[in-house]
Amino acid sequence: MDLSTSDLGWEESSGAEPLLPLDQLVNSVRNETAALTVWGVALCVSGTVIAAENAVVVTTILATPSLRAPVFLLLASLGLADLLAGVALVLHFLFWFCTRPSDWSELVTSGLLVTSLTASLCSLMGVALDRYLSLSHALTYGSGQSRRRAALLLLLVWLGACIIGAGPAMGWHCLDEASSCSVAPPLTRTYLSLLCGGFLIVVMVTLQLYAGICRVARRHAHAIATQRHFLPSSQSYASKHSSGRGFSRLILVLSVFVGCWMPFSLWGLLGDASSPPLYTYATLVPAAGSSLLNPILYSLRNKDIRKVLLQACCPHRCANSTHSHYPVDV
């Protein structure tokens, strides 16, 4: 094959050093450890905090025999997924700033991050489904059959997340063909589009479940209102007050949920490899930040989990306290 001087990578008339092709430049950069930056330190610190707080949640649930209701299985799954997201961020920091970056390290960290984010989002949908069922089927909530269904749901969630996360390692990447890269290399545009499309479907289903929760709660509130003349005034006021707090918490949860997941899901569908990387970081940070907020919004707000943590930290203060579990109090 006849190669011109331009094909060889330098200009004859310039007298400059040969200009290496893009793939050779990338490989030369990978042979050197990246210089530590503020972004790298923030990445490591945030990943450590995410992993630590979710490890506390998962350990608390698994080490407490009384926390075996379906909601706690879902919260443990959510905590485990977010824990893996924190580990993926720390591994990315170690591979990029402490060792020489390589293809396999990029595939491992990207696959682990995809697996954790997929399992986290699906676990959030499972929590919404659990809340809906606990309201619409309150009499059978927490039974052995419900726990088996929750365990089967989690098995399917993690099996699907692992299969999806294994895509980059199984060859669905753009390390050999930069033109097929998405806004988040080494993921291909086709792979990321399918992934973000699935994320949007899960987000829409979750919003529909929360809309169903609002409808069921409104029916319950209407039933209580029709019988309010049979209730003491203080109890009626307490019911209205708790209902108002419940709706405000629901709005907060939905706002954080949509704000964290919608930007990256839309950007993954609309952007391409030529898009500015800043936009990718700006949309991916909220998605990863959801792993930081989930323990606070879902697990640590649960009274049973808080009671176990308080007993572990201050056993003398909680020795005589009693509390019954409310399935929708998460």
In short:
The chain has 330 residues and is mainly α. The protein has helices spanning 5-8, 22-30, 38-62, 70-98, 103-136, 144-165, 189-226, 233-270, 277-299, 303-313. The chain is built from 10 helices and no strands.
Account of the 3D structure:
This protein is mainly α. 71% of the residues lie in helices and 0% in strands. It contains ten helices and no strands. It has helices at residues 5-8, 22-30, 38-62, 70-98, 103-136, 144-165, 189-226, 233-270, 277-299, 303-313. The longest helix is centred in the middle third of the chain and has 38 residues, at 189-226. It is globular. The relative contact order is 0.11. Mean pLDDT is 78; it is low at 1-30, 233-242 and 321-330.
What is the terminal separation in angstroms?
Answer: 67 Å
Computed structural class: mainly alpha
Strand content: under 5%
Instruction: Please describe the biggest sheet, giving its number of strands, its sense, and whether it closes into a barrel.
Output: none
Oligomer: single chain
Q: Give the overall shape.
A: globular
Tally of helical segments: 10
Number of strands: 0
Q: What number is the mean pLDDT? A: 78
Helical amount? over 70%
Low-confidence stretches: 1-30, 233-242, 321-330
Q: List SSEs in N-to-C order.
A: HHHHHHHHHH
What descriptors fit this protein?
globular; 10 helices; 330 residues; disordered N terminus; mainly alpha; single chain; disordered C terminus
Give the topology, please:
Elements: H1 5-8, H2 22-30, H3 38-62, H4 70-98, H5 103-136, H6 144-165, H7 189-226, H8 233-270, H9 277-299, H10 303-313
